[in-house]
Design brief:
The protein contains 1 helix and 11 strands. It is mainly beta and 119 residues long. Strands 2, 4, 5, 6, 9, 10 and 11 form a 7-stranded mixed beta sheet that branches. The chain is globular. The termini are far apart.
Length: 119
């Protein structure tokens, strides 16, 4: 059973930074594709960034490119999302997700962590 637990959310002023963490079940991070999604109030969930299981290449949504950095620590079974130059429109619940292949649906999700950016 894959388990994902996010942490690191909070309230930050515009222009500030936060680092989100997602602790995963043993061997998940090194064997699964990993992703960060977010869902703002009244909006659909959208993908923020994802990394294939067999590569360090990372794909970012245009809205966060150059401001967010996704990284993976296989030894700690943890992925991170470093968020800088935060904007009020980044306010959302951020979710960590995993899938066993590089294609298809994301069957495993964390509970989410709230990020609020004040103007």
């Amino acid at each position: 059973q894959v388990q994902l637990v996010e942490s690191g959310g909070g309230l930050v002023q515009a222009g500030g930074s936060l680092r989100l963490s997602c602790a995963a079940s043993e061997r998940t991070v090194g064997s699964f594709a990993m992703a960060w999604f977010r869902q703002a109030p009244g909006k659909e969930r959208e993908i923020v960034a994802w990394m294939p299981w067999n590569s360090d290449s990372t794909y970012y949504a245009n809205s966060v490119k150059g401001r967010f950095t996704f990284s993976r620590d296989n030894a700690k079974n943890t992925v991170y999302l470093q968020m800088s130059s935060l904007k009020p429109e980044d306010t959302a619940i951020y979710y960590c997700a995993a899938r066993p292949t590089n294609f298809g649906q994301w069957p495993y999700w964390g509970q989410g962590t709230q990020v609020t950016v004040s103007s």
